[in-house]
Here is the input.
Amino acid sequence: MNETADTHKPGLRAWLGLVVILGPVLLVAMDGSVLFLAMPKVAEALSPTAGQALWTLDVYGFVVGSLLITFGGLGDRYGRLKLLMIGVTLFGLASLGAAFATSPEMLITFRGLMGLAGATLLPSALAVLGELFVEPRQRAQAIGIFAAAFAAGFAIGPAVGGQLLSYFWWGSVFLVNLPVLVLFLVLAPFLLREVQASRTGRRIDVLSVVQSVAGLLMTVYAIKHMAAEGFSATLVIVGLAGAVILALFIRRQLTVEHPLIDFSLFRDRVFTIAIITGLLPLAAWSATAYLSGVYLQSVLGVSVLRAALLSIPGALLLTVTCIVTPMLVTRVGKRSALITCHTFIAAGLLLLLPIASSGGVGWYIASTVLAGVGYGISFSLVAETAVAAVPPERAGSAAAIAETSNEIGNALGIALLGSLSVLIFRLRGPDLAGTFGETLGLPGLAPAVIGQAKDAFVTGLRVVAVVAGLLHLIPGLLTLRWVPKVLDDEKGAGPDDGPKEAVTEAVAPGGYGGADVR
Here is the structure.
């Protein structure tokens, strides 16, 4: 028995390989939020319109989320490590281009390329990780570390960006990626092994990929520009066309032999709650983190360094909660943890209501700390709950949808809730420019006009906080109604028992349910 255990025990090479993999993973997550405190500086340098500012923030998340499952299949066909190396190289080149972008259009383009590279990294990294740790318990432990690093990247992104901006220009938030990526390219060939490519398995329906990306981007484009510019025939046509394409996408997924997203999984109510818990908290967190960064710097006049420091308590609590959530679940159960998650997020968001253009730093810190507990539970619990809700043979699809919901939620928060903030500013502001940043940049503004602009922005932030907070009450109530109490009776199950082993088998070696491409 001991000899068998020793055979499966990972050596130094495996743990070093894990550390090397975590570098790009941390960067992919961090780049989803690193611009939250940097946007005021970016706006000063590049003067983006309202729509361009939102695209700069969320195009990355949309591209990552839209292509995660697709690149999971491509990696299985052509080799995971090979795709990982290509993705890291592209991520570095795109980061370099973004750092030296001279126009909003250039920055948006390079951010999109970074998202494309990020979509190749996540599923391939998980699959290569599965080759390093072959014993299920050890693999589960490694994937837990992987998930914690990913959550930490989201959480610390704003703080890292703020720290860099206090010493360097805005492009430094992208250049910081390069040393980590170069180190990976040097060490990966020695520490990591290729995952055997396979030309068999589930096919990727290319038309479904095109429909999902086109429909999502067209619909969001229309919403953003209508919020910033008002209604126009062109925007209405684009929005309706996007909605029709999304409807055709959903219809195709229900009929095609190999769907990109298996919507039949949503028939399970626990799975549905898990996916909502993956999407909605990321949407609320990304929108309020971005808007709060603008609030601290442009409304209250807080320096970018101090703004970064103010974001640290919430980020730390989020990360710690993510790590301890598995232990919490063993004590109180998944049902109670899900309810706690949405309750804390809703309460934390509503703590932004008392903020004003004259002050509110204390309320901001209290909000991030309280909501951070809920966000941490969400980041940690979603994938395991989604996978446990479905049969083991469908664990790969469930894990892929769970991960996609996180990325799409991050992008939708900026796109939809950010557009809501822009709309409120356009309706209540001084009507001199499309955005708060553009308004403050106008010369010769009277103090009364500046005050009106600040008050309008704060009102928009409050409205976003209330809407996001109330939205979190819905899944909380649905959890009470839909999630059986038996999940709370399973609190003795450890993280390596039952369905957890299924997800390590389904996600790590085949990552996102490997697929054939036709």
About this structure: The beta strands are 202-204, 515-517.
